[in-house]
Amino acid sequence: KKHLFVLAGDIGGTNSRLALHNAPSNDDDNSYKTPIFTKQYGNEQYVLNHGAEAFNIILTKFFSEFLDSDKTTLTETQFAPGPQNDVAIVACFACAGPILHNACTFTNIEFKKKEEEDSSSVGYSVNESNKFVIDGNAIATSTCHLVNAVVHCRVVNDFVGQGYGALDLDVAKETVQLVPNSDKRIDDLGPKVCVGAGTGLGECFLTRSSRSPSVGYECFPSEGGHVEYAPRSELETELLHYLKEKFVQQHRVSVERVVSGKGLANIYEFLAKKFPDRVDKKVHDEFLKAGDMQGKVVNVNATEGSLCLQAVEICASAYGSECGSAALKFIPTGGLFVTGGLTPKMLKHIQPADSPFMKAYRDKGRVSPILDTVPLFAVMSEDLGLRGARVCAAGEMKVWKEKQGLVEVRTAPPVSSTEKQVKEESMWMKSLVTILHVAAAVGVLGAIQLHRKR
């Protein structure tokens, strides 16, 4: 009789985006996809003011604002611990960092620890390096005000969130087919892959069991964005040497150094040094002042004949090459989804059949024909992380309800006596046919031997 909700969160280095949904009533209930309450919070402000308690404070504020809104008639008492509590929330947070034991360490977010703080802090854990850890187990066992309503919490990598989000796509409305008739080629049991360039380069893959297809897809994280960058021309070989020197690498650099927003900036920087006479001073000055937005400056100024256009084309080519490599590794007949914030912004350099992206994607030598079996989509939606967290939370809610005895676990229906009789008769007929086939084969062999004796 509890009020059941799923809470989805897309937690990046800059913002925490949260969305509360009613829990789905069954597997066919799509109404839950529309959130009943959403909010976004800037992490920096909460980290500076609350240190290790930052995310705990964010969650408390989110639930408090929900209760104060016109989106619900629930009261604070119903959330609070005690006999009157009748709210249960299952949460999933897609976080921008590595996941270990249901916890995410944010390597780029640190705080100055106060002397009185210790590892009992809820939501964020404190370690010796003063980095934040969103701990799903700590949140699920919290007794803190309002947060205690979260009965189960799963923490996943942000790109795993993208993978689960791909399952929620309306392919016809939210993607561009990069290979004709890709929507008709999708194998419902085939592997799926996501490769997405944004601030960095993320990759993940999803698989589904042919033995238990009703279980659905499970997504697995990958660090594919950090494999070696492989240059495909003399100029790109020079780029590789430049990047090795810039990042103090003796043997290799990651493909993310080229295929990402920051990668686009790296490429332009290299071209500007190699071809100083082609530098547009106005654009270059804007580039130097843009900070983390340097990639955007390059893409916006990619006009015909410019260094910026050349940088974008090199980036798109490397992007296509990496997607093609992922296609060969996984053969994702369930679909290869090109996601990330950079994809819709660079679409004109990705979509055409003769684009730098598609040329490099298909350029895989003697195994290139394998790519014809892979449905390929460019994803236009940029909210896959939050949607994926919701898909994941809904799945976790189903498991939690089964453990609580709130739903019946599906079992195979009993076989009726008529079905049993038909099955037995069918098996008897199959046996008879087999015997007749064997007898016929023996007769043929006997005839052949008799013929040879004569």
Describe this structure in words.
The chain has 454 residues and is of the alpha/beta class. Strand 1 (3-11) and strand 2 (15-22) form a beta hairpin. It contains 16 helices and 14 strands. The strands form three sheets. Strands 9-14-13-10-11-12 form a six-stranded mixed beta sheet, sandwiched between helices. Strands 3-2-1-4-8 form a five-stranded mixed beta sheet. A three-stranded antiparallel beta sheet has the order 5-7-6.
Quote the beta fraction. 15-25%
C-alpha Rg (nearest Å): 28 Å
- Kindly name the structural category: alpha/beta
Are there runs of 5+ residues with pLDDT below 50, and where?
116-128, 408-427
Q: Count helical runs.
A: 16
How much helix is in the residues? 40-55%
Mean pLDDT: 86
Order of helices and strands: EEEHHHEEEEHEHHEHEEEHHHHHEHHEHH
Which shape, going by the Cα principal axes?
globular
Strand order of the largest sheet: 9-14-13-10-11-12
- Termini gap: 87 Å
The biggest beta sheet is recorded as: 6 strands, mixed
Q: Could you give the count of β-strands?
A: 14
Quaternary organization:
single chain
